# Entry
Amino acid sequence: MASKSDEGSSLKRFAECAVGMRNIFYQDGILSEPEFLFMDNHFKVLEMAYLRWKDKHMPYLSGIERGTLQSKST
# Structure
């Protein structure tokens, strides 16, 4: 069974890859503005779930190293 730290690292890597893919789709014009906003809203839900998981399983990191998903740069 993976440790909580390993699980957290896996979740963070997944989020970083998914955000990168979303940004590439948006930059290449594959996603329209409404499609991007729809996808971005889902990422915000995932981010909240990840932060809650992290607070529950890794409380010693709360407030110190709360990694978040990156939004598209403007």
